[in-house]
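The instructor's notes for this session suggest beginning with a concrete chain rather than abstract definitions. Hand out the sequence below and ask the class to guess, before any prediction is shown, which regions might be ordered.
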Amino acid sequence: MENVLVAGANGTTGKQIVKLLSETQYFKPVAMVRKKEQMDQFESKGISTVLGDLEQDVSHAFKNIDKVIFAAGSGGKNVIGVDQEGAKRLIDTAKKSNIKKFVMLSSMGADAPEKADQLQDYLRAKHNADEHLKSSGLNYAIVRPGTLNNKQATDHIQLSEKLSQSGEISRADVAQTLVRVLHDDTSNKVSFEILDGDTLIGKALEEFSDK
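After discussion, reveal the predicted structure:
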C-alpha cells in the first residue's frame, strides 16, 4: 500500500478524501492537520495523522510518503499564504522527497484568472500554484472542479481538459476523482476540468487518459 499525505485533511472535501483512501486496498492516508485538536477524529479511526502548517516548513510530514493530495484552502482568508505559497511549499518539499505523484485540487477558472468576474485573487493564487506544479518536474494531476456542493455522490461526472460551460459538482464526486487519479496508470502530467455529468468517474478518466 502507498502512503498518501492529504494536505487539508480537516476540510469538508479533505475529510471525504481521507475516508475514501482508508477504504481502498491500494492507499493508506496520512491526514495532515494544522491543530492538535483536529487529530483525534482521524486517530480514533486508526488513521495516521501529522501536524503541519502550510505557512511553515513541512518536510517532517513527508516521512515514508509515496504520493500527495493537496486539498487545502484558506476559504478566502489567506489566498497568498495558503492557496498559493503553501501549495508551492508542499510541491517543493514533495520534489525533494521524490514523491511519485502530486494530485492538486484546483478550480475551474484557474487557467485564466483574469477572465473571472469574481474570486480573481483566489483563482490567481490557484493558477500560480498549478503552474509551479507543472514546472516542478513531478508527476502530477491537476483537477479543476466547478462550484462545490454538499450533495450525495453520483459517481458520474463530465470531464474535459476545458469544459464549455460552468456548473456544480458534489465534493463527494470530486473526492472520488482525486483518489482515482492517484493510480499510476491514469492522469499523468495532465490538468482537466470536471462537473456533474453522466459518465462514470472511472470511465471518464479512462477515456481522457486514452486521448
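Then share the key points. The domain at 2-210 is CATH 3.40.50.720 (Rossmann fold). The chain is about 30% helix and 25% strand.
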